Amino acid sequence: MRVSGRWPNVSGCEDAAWAVLALMVDDRFSFALIPVADLAVERTWHMAGMRGTGSHTLVAEGTIVPAERIAAADPFHIGDLLLYSVTVLGPVVGAARGALDAINAMFASDRRPFMSSYSRMAESPGARHWLAEATHLVNRAENTMLAIAHAADSAGLTEADSPRLHMDLADAGRDCRAAVERMLDLHGASGFNTANVLQRFWRDVSVGSRHPHLNPYLAVERFGSTLANRP
């Protein structure tokens, strides 16, 4: 078949040898397996965060694809969709955990809160309180992620479970974002220095937690519609 089209936000496309691209064949949703060398990479990923994913646009212009590399796709099972969402949430939780490691290292050091009489961060009750809050939020996000992954593997999972679990996904993303904001408050303005690892975690969490699979207002909308339409 001759394939033409544009596929945006293809993560890792500059490093991959092959691309699996969605297309319509005879009004049927299908996937095509195409060597990246047969496609053009249009550098459209100009993001403040998650730059490393290299999620540029792939372009095909009359690319010839053997029929055996094109297959019709069956509808995704709810468990598969949830597991995909977990793969989106995983790096967000990991970045929040990395930020927490940086903050814990700061607490273990001799760094003192500026414009205070404390000689170390750990002496401040307020700083300890915010450290506890940030740690709790990161732990809760991780536990939520693992619970959703377990639910996705469950044989008893149904479509009716989807809105509730997507609410959990969105909440975990927001927990990560809130935790990193708390950590930046603890660290202060120097956390935004480009040499400071904390600002990179902040950018990545800020972008990653807003992925469509973690979209909070759509999750609320779906969950609310499900509740309102109960018999």
From TrEMBL:
Keywords: Oxidoreductase. GO terms for cellular component: cytoplasm. SUPFAM superfamilies: Acyl-CoA dehydrogenase C-terminal domain-like, Acyl-CoA dehydrogenase NM domain-like. Pfam families: Acyl-CoA_dh_2. Residues 90-215 form the Acyl-CoA dehydrogenase C-terminal domain. One of its GO terms (molecular function) is acyl-CoA dehydrogenase activity. One of its GO terms (biological process) is fatty acid beta-oxidation using acyl-CoA dehydrogenase. It comes from the Bacteria. This is Acyl-CoA dehydrogenase C-terminal domain-containing protein.
